[in-house]
Amino acid sequence: MISIVQKFLQINHYKDERSDFENLFLSHPNYPSLYAITDSLDLLQVENVAAQVPKEQFTALPNNFLAVVSGEIVLVLKSGLEVVIEKEKGVKQKMSTDSFLTQWNGVVVAIEPSTVSTVLSTGSIKKNKYLLLGVLFLLLFLFQFPIKQPLEIVYFVFSAIGLFLGIAVIDEKLNKTEGVLSKICSFSEHTSCDSVIKSDSSRLTSWLDFSDLPLLFFGTSLVLFELSPASFGIINFMSLLSLPVVGYSIWLQKVKLRKWCVLCLGIASLLVLQSFIFVFYTRDFNFNYKVFLQAAFLVVPVWFFIKPIVLRKASLEQENVKLLKFKRNFSIFSSLEQPIMDSFIFNNLEKIVLGESKALVSLDLILSPSCGHCHTAFTDGIKLLEQYPNKLKLHIFFNLNVDNKENPYSVVAKTLLHINKHQGERVLEALKNWHIDRMTLKEWKEKWVKEEVDPSVEEDLRAQYQWCSTNDYNYTPVKIVNAQLYPQEYDLSELKYFISEIEEKQDAILA
Predict the structure, then answer these.
(1) Most buried residue, 51, 66, 221, 329, by most Cβ within 10 Å?
(2) pLDDT in tens, 235-267
(3) What phi and psi values does residue 135 have, to the nearest 5 degrees?
(4) Which letter does DSSP use for residue 202 in this model?
(5) Strand pairing category for 392-398 and 361-367
(6) Beta bridge partners of 79
């Protein structure tokens, strides 16, 4: 399902959001439901709508959308009088519109195409290990010019393809394979690289399994090519010796597992071809075991040093998804909230209001101008406000003793409340200058302290300070969401995971 939504995003020009969607979707408490998809899209700020559409309105739908067909979420591509539906792992099916309508239950998810053109950045190139691998192979090949024998070219190409497939096998073992390789691995019901590679039968020892062998073999081949290009006969001979392993692998797939691994078959084909070359084309074979051992000693220890690190990283990523899924459970979040005391008095305190006043989710921040953590809380609050302008409003209070005349930062709170009373449209800029731009006190005062502060401001600050003292809030920042004390176990930035649920809860209360 992930690959379907990622392709849906790509078609609509949301290239950068594809990898982020996977993390949000997998960690969603309602995974793998339709709601998990739409909520993840909301978090990515991808405008979307999920609706039950009458079948008579099919022609009015966009050319691509997600739909529920025969109980399965699929990507639908309209093309004239025909419809192409794409299922998980790239399985496509073409059908007539009438046939589609009989299987479709009317549920669709549509998104607004992005108008922002995306350029392939250096960062995205670096993430594509296969592209980097291809560049590395090219550099290694060019480094060996001039090539003396045509078979050296064949030897290099076979080794490069073999190493590529070996890395793809490791990727599949770690649940990383995607795109074209993912489609190749599951192009029919009889093919499944995942089932074969992760099978217990593929394990040879506690520290070695079939997935290690291609990477070790072809990695050694490339290193040997660099050390001695004319030694391709050694690898071809080793390929001949590996044929019993190839035979066992094919028997395992056909008889025991009854699933074919396309990557494994590709590797087996290379070994058979190299064996064929050795038998029919190799002349005056000289097994230079020293250079072979040099190459092997360079590759084998490196891989077995790296392997536990790679496996550990993959395991930690999976555990992180599970923990995030647990943490994003709204019932757990709600159980950690605590209602504030004297909420009526609190709601009637003078405050700085940012955002849409009709928004159902209210984030209240009680800050202190001299508090470093308050800078972070305000920054997170502004980001949430910008991300959810129609759902969230931000209120700013201060926990400040105005009777302490020695506090040099009291002028900041007083001036902010004064600006809010008389020049409300500028208060956000003043807040950002202090909490986000981190102006010095001198710089900030030179820009914003222009006139005598309204006498009522001190009373407002005193009332806020008194309320904090009464409720034992002797710290800052204090974070409150809809009259509930925000759980300390969560970063404020994580509030985005619960915006929709809090909004629904508040809507139900008001109803």
Answers:
(1) 221
(2) 788 888 889 989 988 998 888 888 888 889 999
(3) -65, -40
(4) G
(5) parallel
(6) 82
